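New here. Invent one.

***
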Amino acid sequence: MAYLMRRIGECSPLICLVMIAFPLLQRRLQKELMSLIKEPPPGVVVDSDQGENLSLWTINMTGAEGTLYEGEHFTLQFKFSPKYPFDSPEVTFIGPNIPVHPHVYSNGHICLSILTDDWSPALSVQTVCLSIVSMLSSCKEKKRPPDNSFYVKTCNKNPKKTKWWYHDDTV
């Protein structure tokens, strides 16, 4: 820490901020990872290779018992920017089995307000996983969003660059 404090006196404000914030980001992600490994939400398992790259996580999810997705296996990818937790992670379904759901596009993008407009630094990977499990569990009919074809053809690769319109909280 003494070395860091000495270095801070020699750097620009932006560099100083990065030097201080980066270790905080790493600690936060390590803490969240350990919490998710020790006490995962039901049906959620952190990929066993996790830990090598703290800015990119792979999480496996199994559909909850008694739901339309019971026993189905899905994979989520979490990408964290250097601004996390003040900026939400980029979360998408990846792999061959993307759930057919009114709020999940066939390219894996998820229309969920806490991933953009309603994000708060008080939220965590665990709360995002719980929200996605809840979203899937409450679904009454497997179908794609009405604008799926158009969206998938025209969207940005990063779902956070989409201006989502949250109009249906009943699914």
User: Anything to note?
Assistant: The helical segments are 2-8, 13-38, 125-137, 148-154. The two ends are 49 Å apart (CA to CA).
